[in-house]
Design brief:
Elements: H1 17-44, H2 50-62, E1 85-86, E2 91-92, H3 93-101
Antiparallel strand pairs: 1-2
Helix pairs in contact: 1-2
Length: 113
């Protein structure tokens, strides 16, 4: 969705189309989250009239898919991979291993017992 995309991106990491798209999804989600929560509250509130709740449901379903939290995916900041990403470091398993062995991650060392 080009109309959501920022004019200039300063992500400070590896950049490909998947990273740009994920960044866009995060920004759009952040902007529309209060509105989504308000609509969800209206839908679940049984004290409101049925017509109001139905209108809120319709508005929620007509919102863009980028406003949903399920669209956001954790990606590796080094290579852009979407699978096998360690949350604490935001790196894929392979990149984590290479950086840990090179000593680039403070406080991480190879286990030995």
């Amino acid at each position: 969705m080009a109309h959501f995309r920022a004019k200039r991106l300063d992500l400070g990491c590896f950049t490909n189309i998947k990273i740009i798209r994920d960044h866009t999804k995060r920004k759009v989600f952040e902007e529309h989250e209060p509105e989504r929560q308000a609509l969800r509250y209206m839908i679940r509130n049984t004290s409101l009239p049925q017509r109001t709740r139905a209108q809120a449901q319709l508005q929620l379903t007509q919102m863009h898919c980028y406003t949903r939290p399920t669209q956001i995916r954790n990606r590796c900041i080094m290579g852009g991979k979407g699978r096998g990403v360690l949350r604490d470091f935001r790196m894929s398993r392979f990149q984590f291993r290479m950086n840990a062995l090179a000593g680039k991650l403070p406080g991480v060392k190879k286990a030995s017992w």
